[in-house]
Amino acid sequence: MALMDRVSDLAAMDRPVLIAGERGTGKELIAARLHFLSPRWEQVNVKVNCAAFTPEELDRELFGQTFMDGRSDTNGRVYEANSGTLFLDAVEALPIHLQEKLMRTIEHGQIQATGELHEEEVDVRIVAATSMDLPGMVARGAFRADLLDRLAFHVVTLPPLRTRPEDILPLVAYFGR
């Protein structure tokens, strides 16, 4: 219960949150709680699984693309989340060049679509989730230390169910209904 109280308290703060935990620990549910208990609850809650895309697709998915040949431009998910929350699942899958673009969004509230000359202003709360050891990835040069610092303004660590035997019976009862 203390964990849920902490998450409820963090929801009121308009700062990035990093949710860490193994697969299946409920990171997406915690992210939803952070959004729906926040002042942004009436705005959009956009979810992106960073591991589901190639680096090129992820760039377009997050930041959009401007075409010069008459095709329709695409808005990225960051732009769609403007005034709301952007949940980045598997944030460790972000390539280094996209980590830099995400840093710019967090620090300056700006995005730049691929092929676009100008930056666009956005107001987005970032909630990120990982099942990886991000400090270890920083040590190996696979994740930017400055991005980890920005994302980890608040960290919520979710323990696996095997360490919470007191939660098993309530979960069985819930799913049994």
Question: Please, could you describe this protein's structure?
Answer:
There is one protein chain. Strands 2-3-6-1-7 form a five-stranded parallel beta sheet. The protein has a two-stranded antiparallel ribbon with strand order 4-5. It is built from eight helices and seven strands, in the order αβαβααβαβββααβα. By secondary structure, the chain is α/β, with parallel strands linked by helices. The chain has helices spanning 2-11, 27-36, 55-63, 77-80, 96-108, 134-139, 145-151, 168-176, and strands spanning 17-21, 45-49, 85-89, 110-111, 120-121, 125-130, 154-158.
Features:
17% strand, two-stranded antiparallel sheet, 8 helices, 5-stranded parallel beta sheet, globular
Strand content: 15-25%
Order of helices and strands: HEHEHHEHEEEHHEH
What would the average pLDDT be, to the nearest integer?
92
Determine the N-to-C terminus distance. Answer: 22 Å
Molecular shape: globular
So how many helices? Answer: 8
Low-confidence stretches: none
Largest sheet entry: 5 strands, parallel
Structural class: alpha/beta
- For the CA atoms, what is the radius of gyration? 17 Å
